UniProtKB/TrEMBL annotation:
It comes from Pseudosulfitobacter pseudonitzschiae. One of its GO terms (cellular component) is cell outer membrane. Residues 1-22 form the signal peptide. It is found in: Cell outer membrane. SUPFAM superfamilies: OmpA-like (SSF103088). PANTHER family: LIPOPROTEIN YIAD-RELATED (PTHR30329:SF21), STATOR ELEMENT OF FLAGELLAR MOTOR COMPLEX (PTHR30329). Gene3D superfamilies: OmpA-like domain. This is Membrane protein. The lineage of its organism: Bacteria, Pseudomonadati, Pseudomonadota, Alphaproteobacteria, Rhodobacterales. It comes from the Bacteria.
Amino acid sequence: MNVSKISIAAILMGSMALTACTAPGQLGGNPNDPKRNTKTGALAGAVSGALLGAAVSDDGDRGDGALIGAVLGGAVGAGVGYNLDKQEAELRRSMDSNVQITNTGDRLIVTLPQDILFATDSFAVRPDLRDDLSAVAASLQRYPGSTVQVIGHTDSDGDAAYNQQLSERRATAVSEVLLQNGVPYSRIQSFGRGESQPVATNLNAAGKAQNRRVEIVILPNA
C-alpha cells in the first residue's frame, strides 16, 4: 500500500470512529450528550480539511495533503464544537427558563419571546429582561471569538411595513443593551425580518406567540 492509500485509509478510519460517536441517522449525536458538538465539529472539520488538503496538493501528494488537512480540520472543528457546548451550558444556567437556546453545532441561537421582552407595540426592553441580556453579554465577553446577529421577528397581524419597522427597532433595542454591557459594536449586526420568517402558523394565538421573537445568533469565528 503506497503513502496515498495509507493516508486515505487513515482519514476514512478516523471518520468512521467519529461517526460511531453519533446515533444512527443523527449527525449531531445524542442531544443529551454535553460533548455532542465537539464530536460533530471534529468530524465535519476532518472531512472538510481532507477535501481541501487533497484539492490543493499535487497529484502525487494528494493522499498526504488530505491526511494533513483532516488532522488540522478536525482539531479546529473540535475546538469550535467544544466551545459551543461549554457556552450553551453556561447560558442555560444563567438565563430564564422562558429563553430558548438552540445549539446547531456551528452556532448558538438564543430565542427570546417578544411578549416577555416588550410591551405591546413597544420597542423598549422590559427592565426585568435586562438581566438575561446582561448574561448573554457576559458570555459573549468570555468567548470573544464570535460575531453576533440580533434578528427581530413579528407575527403577521397588522401592516407588513409596520411589522418590518417594529422588528428592526426591537432588534436594535436588544443590540443596544448588549453594547451597554460591554460587547463591542464591531461584533454585533442587527436585522429586522418582520413577518417574513415565521417558525409556526399565524392562524392561531399560540403560533403567533412563537413568531414574535428576537433571536441572538452567536457565530464562532473558526
